[in-house]
């Protein structure tokens, strides 16, 4: 068995990065660690780089870029780097002084250009490396903890210092994609230092957080090797939510326990070599200081009174009702959206299979960088009316580069080198993935397209860039694929497109899904369904610990039902990971 | 020596590869400018996205923008006078202004040696 995680004994470096598949509890673990270290008398700064910051939910205090002291915990400070906000600040700094000097149409053009993904990435990176390279931060705090965004984003963020350091050296012809941050070159030393801090085992530990579930362990392994390659060698694994005992008379509890143990035996070999600790599955939700302290204490298994125990719930729809709805309305494009780890991929796959069973021709695809569609369909048959694909950013980038170079026509060596340099920029990925995305949606003329989108922040950037993209087309002289032109109007048409928000019965996923819905509404997209996944409440378990957790779910189910969703459906927690067409078929016929 | 100034619209990068689609015209202009720079021609490019001051401070360019708005970009100046508005010059035009042959703008310059530091 694993040693129980105890921050006071196990934390050895000043910088800590928490990473893992969304929903594994990175935020809770980071917060509990921060509080424990602060209680020990260490001065601690907790930084969130999550576009949908969770920290403010946990501490119940409004956070900003500047570190603020947490009133209820001495020595603890927290700040939040919101990528969109960082980009906005940067944009205003650049554009602001020229509002009076240049005509409106010119100012608008500048703003539009600075609204792209590039600016967001650069501005975020800038904030991030500032903290890593600043000696004052280093001397002022004993520990700086980064509660990073879901893995895909984390990887991009962390791999940026190396990627960009290289880029800056090679970008001999000047501005290029780094244009939005002119003067970036002056900061080269700072970025260099950020990279050094990251790969210094004396300074930085990468804390991989996983659940006793196979997919989160696979994800942790991927992150571990990818970040290891970048040079972050000092790593630690925390298995969060390990059920300590079970009730033999309760089917759900037994299945839950056995499922966890089975998943742990499938831990990837590489990951087994990393120092591993665990945190127990507890009956209470991790909101508030007393609970954060309890979870990493010597006595984590206590009970807290949940306020929602007596809540009465109205009857809820099931996943098959969602499928019936889309089938009868003949919706052409269906997105499942939500933070990573809530099970969007499974829900998308189940909807796709359900619609196929109703006689529709269906195409299922994913833009999630941490895709596991292939994993889900690794065995079993696939119906001939169901086709499956995935958008792999790396493949798309290669294809796009090739296309650009081919279209550029006759180039001499020097010109080619020049063009290739520009193609090395981070923008290229965004553009390439976006085009692939448009091509898939185009298929909805012949078949229903079910898209399992990437985690929240990324999804929004994608849709945002689709908007900027859309505007940009009107003045571009290059070739625009037809599929791209039709994309945004199609996404906005409720007759054609249905959005399904996927969430879990816990505070953070519900808060995140709410923010996602708000953002979508700003982009003129209203989610049709909310699907609440993996509900213990829906299982009717009688196990003491699980039952307490099930009761705490009710407040979130009620909130979704009454305040957030137009239509909502509940999916019970299930032991079997639904792999293969036949299993998914059974699942939707429940 | 003649002086050429190109005031570009707000662009992510000078070759245009970051845009929604690649404009072959931009790639050509980028190459031509690069060739001219290599020959020691006095040619400057300003991108609205990262050098707005140049647009605001240059009276001639600012005037054009005040009258015609953003659609007037790119604006090309030859020795401080507007020679082209709203589109990029052809290689022939560049050649004529700078009194060089158009072939010189597309001929292969010597191969650049790139050193990769790891």
Automatic annotation (TrEMBL), chain A:
InterPro entries: Ars_ATPase, ArsA/GET3_ATPase-like, ATPase_ArsA/GET3, P-loop_NTPase. Pfam families: ArsA_ATPase. It comes from the Bacteria. GO terms for molecular function: ATP binding; ATP hydrolysis activity; ATPase-coupled arsenite transmembrane transporter activity. Residues 15-295, 331-475 form the ArsA/GET3 Anion-transporting ATPase-like domain. Belongs to the arsA ATPase family. This is Arsenical pump-driving ATPase. It comes from Oceanobacillus bengalensis. The gene is arsA.
From TrEMBL, chain B:
One of its GO terms (molecular function) is DNA binding. One of its GO terms (biological process) is response to arsenic-containing substance. InterPro entries: Arsenical-R_ArsD (IPR010712). It comes from the Bacteria. It holds the Pfam family ArsD. This is Arsenical resistance operon transcriptional repressor ArsD. The gene is arsD.
């Amino acid at each position: 068995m694993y040693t129980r995680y105890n921050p006071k004994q196990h934390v050895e470096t000043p910088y800590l990065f928490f990473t893992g598949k969304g929903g594994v509890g990175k935020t809770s673990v980071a917060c509990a660690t921060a509080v424990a270290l602060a209680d020990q008398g260490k001065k601690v700064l907790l930084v969130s780089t999550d576009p949908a910051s969770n920290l403010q939910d946990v501490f119940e205090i409004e956070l900003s870029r500047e570190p603020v002291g947490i009133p209820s915990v001495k020595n603890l400070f927290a700040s939040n780097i919101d990528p969109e906000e960082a980009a906005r600040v940067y944009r205003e700094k650049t554009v602001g002084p020229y509002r009076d000097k240049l005509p409106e149409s010119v100012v608008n053009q500048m703003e539009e250009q600075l609204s792209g993904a590039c600016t967001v990435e650069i501005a975020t990176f800038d904030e991030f490396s500032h903290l890593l390279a600043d000696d004052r931060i280093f001397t002022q705090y004993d520990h700086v903890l980064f509660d990073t965004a879901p893995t895909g984003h984390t990887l991009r963020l962390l791999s940026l210092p190396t990627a960009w350091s290289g880029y800056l050296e090679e970008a001999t012809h000047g501005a290029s994609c780094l244009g939005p941050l002119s003067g970036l070159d002056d900061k080269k030393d700072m970025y260099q230092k950020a990279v050094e801090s990251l790969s210094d085992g004396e300074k930085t530990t990468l804390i991989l957080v996983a659940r006793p579930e196979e997919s989160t362990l696979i994800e942790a392994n991927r992150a571990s090797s990818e970040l290891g390659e970048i040079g972050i060698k000092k790593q630690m694994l925390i298995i969060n939510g390990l059920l300590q005992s079970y009730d033999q008379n309760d089917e759900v509890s037994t299945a839950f326990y056995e499922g966890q143990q089975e998943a742990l035996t499938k831990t990837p070999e590489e990951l087994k070599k990393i120092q591993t600790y665990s945190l127990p599955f507890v009956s209470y939700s991790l909101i508030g200081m007393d609970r954060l302290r309890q979870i990493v204490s010597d006595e984590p298994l206590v009970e807290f009174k949940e306020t929602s125990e007596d809540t009465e719930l109205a009857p809820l729809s099931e996943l098959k009702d969602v499928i019936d709805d889309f089938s009868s309305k003949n919706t052409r494009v269906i997105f499942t959206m939500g933070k990573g780890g809530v099970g969007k991929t499974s829900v998308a796959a189940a909807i796709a299979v359900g619609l196929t069973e109703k006689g529709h021709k269906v195409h299922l695809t994913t833009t999630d960088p941490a895709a596991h569609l292939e994993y889900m369909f690794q065995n079993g048959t696939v119906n001939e009316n169901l086709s499956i694909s995935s958008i792999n950013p790396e493949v798309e980038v290669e294809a796009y580069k090739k296309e650009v170079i081919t279209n550029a026509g006759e180039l001499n060596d020097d010109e080619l080198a020049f063009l290739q340099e520009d193609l090395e920029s981070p923008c290229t990925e965004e553009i390439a993935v976006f085009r692939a995305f448009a091509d898939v949606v185009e298929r909805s003329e012949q078949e229903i397209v079910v898209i399992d989108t990437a985690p929240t922040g990324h999804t929004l950037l994608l849709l945002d860039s689709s908007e900027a993209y859309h505007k940009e087309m009107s003045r571009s002289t290059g070739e625009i694929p037809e599929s791209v032109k039709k994309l945004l109007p199609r996404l906005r048409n409720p007759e054609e497109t249905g959005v399904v928000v996927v969430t879990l019965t816990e505070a953070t996923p519900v808060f995140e899904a709410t923010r996602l819905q708000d953002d979508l509404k700003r982009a003129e997209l209203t989610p049709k369904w909310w699907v609440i996944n993996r509900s213990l409440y829906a299982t009717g378990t009688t196990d003491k610990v699980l039952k307490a957790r099930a009761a705490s779910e009710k407040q979130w189910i009620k909130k979704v039902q009454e305040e957030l969703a137009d239509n909502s459906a509940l999916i019970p927690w299930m032991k079997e990971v639904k792999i293969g067409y036949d299993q998914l078929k059974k699942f939707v016929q429940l | 020596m003649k002086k050429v100034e190109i005031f570009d619209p707000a662009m992510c990068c000078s070759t245009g590869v970051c845009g929604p689609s690649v404009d072959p015209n931009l790639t050509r202009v980028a190459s031509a400018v690069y060739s001219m720079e290599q020959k020691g021609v006095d040619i400057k490019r300003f991108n609205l996205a990262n050098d707005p001051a140049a647009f605001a401070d240059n009276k001639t360019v600012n005037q054009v923008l005040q009258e015609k708005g953003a659609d007037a970009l790119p604006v090309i100046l030859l020795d401080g006078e507007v020679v082209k508005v709203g589109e990029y010059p052809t290689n022939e035009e560049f050649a004529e202004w700078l009194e060089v042959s158009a072939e010189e703008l597309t001929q292969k310059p010597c191969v650049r040696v790139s050193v990769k530091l790891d």
